[in-house]
Amino acid sequence: MPENPIFCDECDSIMHIKVIGNNVMYQCKCGATKPLPDELLKKYRSKKKKRKPIKVRGKRRESIFDSYDEEELPLYPNDLLLSIKNFDSNKKLQQKIEKGENAEIKFRTKYPYRTNPSLIEDLTEADLYDIPANKYGLFFKQIDFDLKGKLGLNTQQLAKVAEHLEDFKEWLSQAVDDSLSLAEKLEFDWERIPGMGGGHVLGKKIIYAFYEEALPIFNNQHLENFYEKFYGKTPHFFGMSESEQFEFLTFQMIKVKNNHSVMKDWSNVKFMYFLYNYYYPK
């Protein structure tokens, strides 16, 4: 127990000091907060860690995917054209897809980190987690609500990510580095950023937010299900890491889209909606 514990007025639990940008306060596990005395504020603000300079990037890749067997071609289901017709006739769904596509453009315009990674230094803890409101900061909110897929994180997890802002910035610089493959972007010591969740799902969603050529399907098992549907077999990974498996499956599913006369003109977000609406195992 701390030498001079501070107790929560709401639930009587011991409160702990949280440092989120310029907001430094006592916070309880229930979410309640109390301000710190001025002398403690000065102490904790002076402890802010400096990040290492962003590394010089390598040569820009033509694709976020490594080279895989181009001879392996998909086997399209017999009902595919009928499914496409029904899918395109669903006006409500098409409006939802268009909204998502527009949100992606706005996000990449607001956060041009791929072309100007130095702007990552301007990212604050409050952009990740809003302490006073106990909710998502703007950066995560736009990924969660404006782009496809819920983050699936609670506010305590987001607070942990925000507390490790400098490590998060380091990974984000890696994630938007065009010299790295999709799998390489996900190879990181994730224990340095508690709260990011298992399976690199949050990392995958953030990468997709910056790369339209990626596919907004973040679960490896879901990708395997789609792969089996369109290739008629179970994928063989031959000692690949989890990140490499994700890259391989994503590459193969994008090939399903790009090799089809109709689907090749779709955005990847539209293709994702199509797969989940017509070919995801019930």
Characterization of this structure:
- With 282 residues, the chain is α+β, with helices and mostly antiparallel strands.
- Among the domains are: 1-42, no CATH class; 80-96 and 216-278.
- Helix content is 44%, strand content 7%.
- The strands form two sheets. Strands 1-2-3-4 form a four-stranded antiparallel sheet. A two-stranded antiparallel ribbon has the order 5-6.
- Strand 1 and strand 2 (14-20) form a beta hairpin.
- Helix 10 crosses helix 11 (242-258).
- The longest helix is centred in the middle third of the chain and has 20 residues, at 91-110.
- Mean pLDDT is 82; it is low at 47-54.
Write the layout of secondary structure elements.
Layout: E1 6-7, E2 14-20, E3 23-27, E4 33-35, H1 38-45, H2 80-88, H3 91-110, H4 125-128, E5 129-130, E6 135-136, H5 138-146, H6 155-163, H7 165-175, H8 182-186, H9 201-210, H10 220-231, H11 242-258, H12 268-278
Antiparallel strand pairs: 1-2, 2-3, 3-4, 5-6
Helix pairs in contact: 10-11
